[in-house]
Amino acid sequence: MTASSDIVRIFGVAKNLVEEAGKLITEAIWKDKKVSTKSSAVDFVTESDQRVEKFIISSISKEFPDHKFIAEESTDQELKLLDYPTWIIDPIDGTMNFVHGNPLVCISIGFYVNKEAEFGIIYNPVLKELYTALKGKGAYLNGQPIAASGRTEINKALICFEGGSSRDPEKMRCVIENFTTLYPKVHGFRSYGTAAISMSMLARGSVDAYFEFGPHIWDMAAGSLIIREAGGVVIDPSGGPLDLMSRQFLCASSTELALELSKNLKLYKQQRDDE
After folding, report:
1. Which chemical reaction does it catalyze (predicted)?
2. What's the rounded mean pLDDT across residues 136-156?
């Protein structure tokens, strides 16, 4: 059992850590980088991804030696989210942006106990934007309250849309079909190249909905709580409840908009994170 006072203290440690880790990103973003690939020719990892993750995990382990981790660059086996206090970490969300010197990059950390989110932190160190949420306490950007737009009508909605790094032909057909279906029905599309920042944009009311097929648990662990604390909703694209291991989600500024979008989406199933 983790007491609420302990959660607040852990949250404070986490905020300090992401700000320190962010310096590793700002020092490297406009320099030459050593880039490797993972699942596809456009699924990148850099030395900075690994350095940031190592710094965060080693720092947390010193402070909280019994805590567990699910982290993008050190995960090479089937994932399991258990009841233990668990940090779910994406050290650099938006690695493609980082490689190109695009400032839309961030560190994303979700802290879970008994499989439930206790807090989420998304930090863009280049733009100095810190999104935070403690369960039941609202969502904040640099300490100021933020809220989703509350938009309900699909024909007035600005939609965040990502293709992802997969080049599987079926996945690409699904992406194109969803774009073609929604394009005449919505106000417009935006693409930020990072799931965590896209979710943050929804939480602050700058876009009205966002869906994606292919992200991992570390892409949505923090953002899903921040959106809910900002008054938005996060569900499965099929219309059911969110499953963090499913590698798909749909978030929106209102339940009405989420369900309307769900009716219009072609679904794409792929291997889960826990398989």
Report:
1. a myo-inositol phosphate + H2O = myo-inositol + phosphate
2. 98
